[in-house]
């Protein structure tokens, strides 16, 4: 279902006109109202009176996470504090939390883009949505909540965590939609199986998953385990929250629509900051086009992805591929750049392993080393009669040695790095407790 066809299917030329007009307005607005931007634009020699719109966008420099910290808490606001209707913070995955503010009009746009997103995810008015995104300062819970209400869904505001209660409500209230982090949806799928709750006991049809990188492996596990069609929802507090982009349920695997009438995307080279060609990987950069409380010019998200137009898509807006990782958590090992999601892609091609893994980087002398811990599947553990994977078990079972060897070889072939692979028993790696799951440990700077 398309929530707002007039905008979501607006011909591209019209969309450009709209973006151009909005961008000029937004630049004049921040120049007049935010001292930080006035100083910055003056230093760059940009003045709203001569700013030509999209073609001049690269002249605006970048806004970075440190600019939010330097202006903590309210220094980037463009309206008096009395006009701020709500405050949120980013979840602080990397460092101190970032404060963001919304006017009532901003909250209206937030609800609109989430309503579009949930409609694209398969939701239709009258359905029930179990919202397992965290409520509170994190934008996820409340962001999904108001968008779901706007679309006409019944919201079950359960928040993250509390797996017993989540499973109970899935059975008692029979919601059609689940919103959660992908790692938490995995937990719910796994717990259902462990507790012998059949898929027929619940009524889920769709899941909109986001807030952290995930891959086709996880999609498969969640889709099978919960009996849903799972789509990607992406967003970030600095720009709005969840619902900056969303995958259409019938176009799964082909990218997520960015609601570019409100959030103008660019992809730039992570070293030079220069725009890359359509479809090429780089750092995603967003400029807000309609924000009132905290308009942001060219925000350097640190998220690595690509953007492209899909002519066979149901909407005209640009699509983005999955987030490959953050440029700041990209691991550089012996000069080779890689993301933990590459390890996950390899795992998806292997039998007899669970989708859980952990990548640990450490340094011995001046040598970087990487270890990958991965769980043996529950089925194989049962077949071999094992609770955990000891050295004796490794020595005794050739299939375990073969598993370890083929995984290590695939990593070497695909990523170009030798990594030490350690097999663990099923269930030994940490699971999500309702929020995001950290799959990478970089111990190199701790020594
Ligand atoms: P924090 O930066 O503290 O995690 P946010 O809660 O604002 O704060 O999270 C935004 C970030 O979360 C994004 O920049 C991105 O790295 C990640 N993220 C959000 N949604 C997705 C998604 N669907 N896929 C991959 N990463 C995502
Ligand atoms: K996040």
From TrEMBL:
Pathway assignment: Aromatic compound metabolism; phenylacetate degradation
AMP-dependent synthetase/ligase domain mapped to chain residues: 79-286
EC id: 6.2.1.30
Gene Ontology biological-process annotations: phenylacetate catabolic process
Keyword Nucleotidyltransferase: no
Enzymatic reactions: 2-phenylacetate + ATP + CoA = phenylacetyl-CoA + AMP + diphosphate
Primary enzyme class: ligase
CDD domains: PaaK (cd05913)
Highest rank taxon of the organism: Bacteria
Function: Catalyzes the activation of phenylacetic acid (PA) to phenylacetyl-CoA (PA-CoA).
Protein family: Belongs to the phenylacetyl-CoA ligase family.
This protein's name: Phenylacetate-coenzyme A ligase
Organism: Hymenobacter wooponensis
């Amino acid at each position: 279902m398309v929530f707002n066809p007039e905008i979501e299917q607006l011909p591209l030329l019209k969309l450009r006109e709209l973006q151009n007009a909005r961008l000029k307005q937004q630049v004049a607005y921040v120049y007049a109202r935010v001292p930080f931007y006035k100083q910055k634009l003056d230093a760059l020699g940009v003045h709203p009176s001569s700013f030509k719109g999209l073609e001049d966008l690269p002249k605006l420099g970048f806004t970075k996470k440190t600019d939010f910290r330097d202006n903590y808490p309210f220094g980037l606001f463009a309206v008096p504090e009395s006009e701020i209707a709500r405050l949120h913070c980013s979840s602080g995955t990397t460092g101190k939390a970032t404060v963001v503010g919304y006017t009532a009009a901003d909250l209206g746009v937030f609800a609109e883009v989430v309503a579009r997103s949930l409609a694209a995810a398969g939701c239709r008015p009258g359905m029930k949505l179990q919202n397992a995104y965290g409520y509170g300062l994190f934008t996820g819970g409340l962001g999904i909540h108001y968008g779901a209400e706007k679309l006409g869904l019944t919201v079950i505001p359960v928040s993250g965590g509390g797996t017993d209660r989540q499973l109970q409500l899935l059975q008692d209230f029979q919601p059609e939609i689940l919103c959660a982090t992908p790692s938490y949806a995995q937990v719910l799928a796994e717990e259902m199986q462990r507790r012998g709750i059949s898929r027929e006991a619940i009524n889920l049809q769709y899941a909109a998953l986001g807030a952290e990188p995930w891959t086709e492996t996880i999609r498969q596990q969640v889709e099978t385990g919960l009996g849903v069609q799972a789509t990607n929802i992406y967003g970030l507090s600095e720009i709005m929250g969840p619902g900056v982009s969303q995958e259409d349920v019938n176009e799964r695997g082909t990218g997520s629509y960015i609601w570019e009438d409100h959030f103008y995307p660019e992809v730039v080279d992570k070293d030079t900051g220069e725009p890359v060609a359509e479809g090429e990987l780089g750092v995603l950069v967003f400029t807000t086009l309609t924000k009132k409380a905290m308009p942001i010019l060219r925000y350097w998200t640190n998220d690595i992805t690509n953007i492209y137009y899909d002519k066979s898509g149901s909407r005209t807006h640009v699509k983005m591929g999955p987030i490959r990782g953050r440029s700041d958590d990209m691991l550089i090992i012996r000069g080779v750049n890689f993301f933990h999601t590459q390890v996950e892609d390899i795992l998806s091609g292997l039998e007899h392993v669970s989708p859980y893994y952990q990548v640990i980087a450490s340094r011995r002398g001046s040598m970087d080393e990487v270890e990958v811990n991965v769980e043996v599947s529950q089925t194989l553990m049962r077949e071999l009669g094992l609770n955990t994977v000891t050295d004796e078990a490794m020595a005794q079972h050739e299939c375990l040695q073969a598993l370890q060897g083929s995984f290590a070889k695939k990593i070497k072939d695909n990523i170009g790095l030798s990594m030490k692979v350690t097999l663990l028993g099923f269930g030994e790696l940490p699971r999500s407790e309702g929020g995001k799951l950290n799959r990478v440990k970089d111990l190199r700077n701790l020594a």
